[in-house]
UniProtKB/TrEMBL annotation:
Keywords of this entry: Hydrolase
Domain CN hydrolase: residue ranges: 1-239
MF annotations from Gene Ontology: hydrolase activity
Top-rank lineage group of the source organism: Bacteria
Record-given protein name: Nitrilase-related carbon-nitrogen hydrolase
Similarity field: Belongs to the carbon-nitrogen hydrolase superfamily. NIT1/NIT2 family.
PROSITE patterns: CN_HYDROLASE, UPF0012
Length: 271
């Protein structure tokens, strides 16, 4: 399987329309790949909170239309990163869009863990509630977005649902680049899965994003890793490695699901 991670530059100086056109052209240029991935919130920018209301769109909005056409033109599976979705309930969601080779929208995933503590997503967006996977001829894809990387229980749920390829769009901050590298590889090793982690590059909204997109195999081997700037990172992935490592090191079978919680777990009065 050949994959490309489009590590798009997201800056304050380019409009969402301009970036959408540029991203579509980059996707169209990936004919011959099997799967192409874009970063998190690359239309509005993940750190430009003030633009989210104006830039919000439904799942069949301008980004979806442009990405559907680009996926069809290149005949690739396209994980188009995430958009600020305005849901039917009026809430905003950080929503991933997956298109098949014909350009059909096959899955959406609303980010479950919202980043920001007392600002950003945590304040302005609603949380997704659904663990999402999809079977494809490439293998079963599982969805997670950026901050989700810090929550291994989501990844275990994805693997319990049969995931072999974890796709993680992100807009990770540059100053935590080493944490990104560790977490991406850790998820690959512990879930014995391929991880395709596509981060935005450049600065906007006062935040420098990490770049450093990675394709990692289930051994934790980094098959390809981007630098800090805009780049199309391409990797050849041998999907047989997933079944091979799960047979050779069957750690997922050794889980103990009945470990009792300590008596003082989460107790406010615990010393
Ligand atoms: O967890 C982090 O350090 C960054 C998360 C983040 O930037 C995001 O989810 O948008």
């Amino acid at each position: 399987m050949r994959v490309s991670l489009i590590q798009l530059l997201v800056s304050d100086t380019e409009s969402a329309d301009e970036r959408r056109a540029r991203a579509a052209a980059l996707v169209r240029g990936r004919a011959g790949d099997d799967l192409v991935v874009l970063p998190e919130l690359w239309t509005t920018g993940a750190w430009a909170y003030d633009d989210w209301q104006a830039g919000a769109e439904p799942v069949d909005g301008p980004t979806a239309r442009a990405m559907s056409a680009a996926a069809r033109s290149a005949a690739v599976w396209l994980h188009a990163g995430t958009v600020v979705e305005r849901g039917d309930d009026g809430s905003l969601y950080n929503t991933a869009l997956l298109f098949d080779r014909s350009g059909a929208l096959r899955r959406t995933y609303r980010k479950i863990h919202r980043y920001g503590f007392d600002t950003g997503e945590a304040v302005w967006m609603a949380a997704g509630r659904e663990v999402v996977t999809i079977g494809t001829e490439l293998g079963r894809l599982g969805f997670a977005t950026c901050y989700d990387l810090r929550f291994p229980e989501l990844f275990r749920a994805l693997v319990d649902a049969g995931t072999e390829i974890l796709v993680v769009p992100a807009a990770w901050p540059a100053r935590r680049r080493e944490q990104w590298r560790i977490l991406v590889r850790a998820r690959a090793v512990e879930e014995q899965a391929v991880v395709l982690a596509c981060c935005a590059s450049g600065s906007h909204g006062g935040m420098e994003q990490a770049g450093g997109s990675m394709a990692v195999d289930p051994w934790g081997t980094v098959l390809a890793e981007a630098g800090a700037g805009e780049e199309v990172l391409t990797a050849e992935i041998d999907m047989d490695v997933v079944a091979a490592i799960r047979a050779e090191l069957p750690v997922l079978q050794d889980r103990v699901l009945s470990i009792p919680a300590p008596e003082n777990a989460r107790s406010a009065s615990a010393p």
